[in-house]
Known about the structure:
Blueprint: H1 3-65, H2 75-80, E1 85-86, E2 89-101, E3 104-114, E4 120-127, H3 133-136, E5 145-147, E6 151-158, E7 161-168, E8 173-180, E9 184-191, H4 195-203, H5 207-212
Antiparallel strand pairs: 1-2, 2-3, 3-4, 4-9, 5-6, 6-7, 7-8, 8-9
Amino acid sequence: MGDSGMIRLLVPVMAVAVMFACSKVEEKQQAVEKMAAASDQLAKSVEQAGKAMEGAAKAMEDASAGIGKAPTTDFRELKALLPESLPDMKRTDAKGEKVAFGGFGGAFAEGSYNDDKGGHISIKISDMGGIGAMAAAAWTMVEIDSEQDNRYEKTTKIGEFKARESYDKSSKSGELDIAIPDSIIIEIRGNGVSMEAVKGAAAKIDLAKLAAMKGPAVAKK
Length: 221
């Protein structure tokens, strides 16, 4: 075989080798980019967690100075604010209690609601007393906005009050927390329902009346 024949034979082989090398370089570049993106996300998560811990520590420090100075509401008042029903849902249970230990105490009321399709929503209203809502819920100290294929979580506002909402499409489960300074937390949990249904439950609660109650320290706001 002459030199020209050898060259004609080698040219396609070299072309394939170059294409293979280029593809490997591209794959490596994509891998590097993915690693960099993952590193950035991890750094943001660590920073967010650090801020939450700092905020919670500061809130606990502030709250410790005021333990016993913010009396809790009578749980019967909180229980009276539980909606008697929700859209397409009946209330199946309602309960309340007051607990105290040392300088800490709290009052709680919780209602359960069900529809005829297996959907369930629970509403819990808590007066954290001297501990304070901000100390009891670290999420109130940070801004959250994250999204995955089937789930999201973010901090937002319900009326004038800070809130946190999350929803998982795959399980049809949602959460909505509302903090009313300085001592009230509302926790709404839904399973087998839409996020609109969870928000609809919040719309049935008289937040203004909660904020104006004499017991919580929010009366000073």
